[in-house]
Amino acid sequence: MSTVRDHLGNARALIGSTRAALPTPALVIDLPAVRRNLAEMAARMEGLPAALRPHAKIHKSQVLGQMQLDAGAIGLTTATIWEASAMIDAGLADILIANQVVGPVKSAELARIAGLGRVTVAIESEHSAREVSAAAVHVGTNIHVIVEIDVGLHRSGVRSVEAAVALGQLIDSLPGLTLDGLLGYEGHCMLEPDRAVRIEKATAANAILVDAADAFVQAGLSTEIIAGGGFGTWDITGANPRVTEIHAGSYIFMDAFHRNLVPGFDVALTVEATIISRDGSLAVVDCGRKSIGIDRIAPEVVGGVASVRFEHGEHFVHEEHTALELASGSDLDVGDHVALMPGYGPTTVNLYDIYFVAEGETIIDVWPILARYGSATCGLGPVR
Ligand SMILES: Cc1ncc(COP(=O)(O)O)c(C=O)c1O
């Protein structure tokens, strides 16, 4: 049986070859574009009061996480305890989990990694506060906590400022926990295409977070961290003088979804695919929804050489096939490669074991997407 290590070893044999030589579908990152995006975001953040703690769920890679830290990030954000473990185990030692971590196995893992670096977790319930506190006490570590407040997304978070204060007071009194402040993620504003509406909605969401911060101050609770924000609201939430950090992440890769929302960043993540069938202007590639994220929006073909076909009211993206409409006069044929920009980056990355790292057409390295193995094993041991 082959292992993750075998995959990586086999893939390394392709270092030095070109994109066109990759077996497809293959996930490719354009390293110069990643570097440009990191520098662009760092430059934009310089003018804002908030710091950047980029969301690592987008890439699930310790190498890219380290590059973000080198570019000035204050730490990393994760969505899962397993992403946090992968980052901490790799020595990236200031991780904030912007999500609820509930259940005994996950809480025990949270307590373990809190012994290896600074770990902060969002909490919205008394159940979770007590569970996480008990786990920390059991192994003698200390977990930093921020209270999550719902600022309009209606996903998680306490539903009122009063509830936030009450939970903050409880957390403050529990052993093994240090209360640091608040998280209010305005995810319902992030994808609003109309910038004026996005600003209006995000400002209203931020006001709820600031109200909670005021109430924390009045109650004598810590407001060291007042967090929120994503890529779509980086310059709205990040400009709020009360917000200490934002969690934008998609800027590192861009995808079809974010490209039109926040201009000025380069497409750094693509899926290399091979044309396996051609009939007139129709070309079908060996890449479908099992190898490219299509949340909310279809992939786009890089370079305008083709576009994803629209049929029967939806984009023609099957499990292992995507139908393309070739540009007129195209001589692309069976065996040729095209590069697809994912509709959504994070759900694309999660489908792969490795990145092929490219500079121009040349593959210069192979990086594992290790954090997904943590989530696959649920902390119960290595996958073979
Ligand atoms: C809690 C949280 N914070 C921040 C983000 C920011 O991600 P992005 O950069 O894609 O907007 C997300 C994305 O889903 C999120 O769920």
Features:
384 residues, nine-stranded mixed β-sheet, alpha/beta, 19 strands, Lyase, Ornithine Decarboxylase, Chain A, domain 1, TIM Barrel, eight-stranded parallel β-sheet, 13 helices, binds pyridoxal-5'-phosphate, globular
Description of the structure:
- There is one protein chain.
- The chain is α/β, with parallel strands linked by helices and 384 residues long.
- The chain has two domains: 4-29 and 264-370, D-serine dehydratase-like domain (Lyase, Ornithine Decarboxylase, Chain A, domain 1), CATH 2.40.37; 93-248, TIM Barrel (Alpha-Beta Barrel).
- It is 33% helix and 23% strand.
- Helix 4 (81-89) packs parallel to helix 5 (104-113) and helix 5 (104-113) packs across helix 6.
- The longest helix has 24 residues, at 195-218.
- The chain is globular.
- The chain starts with a helix and ends in a 7-residue tail after the last helix.
- The model has no long low-confidence stretch (mean pLDDT 94).
- The chain binds pyridoxal-5'-phosphate.
- Pyridoxal-5'-phosphate (PLP) binds next to helix 8.
- Pyridoxal-5'-phosphate binds at residues 55, 98, 185, 187, 190, 230-232, 247-250.
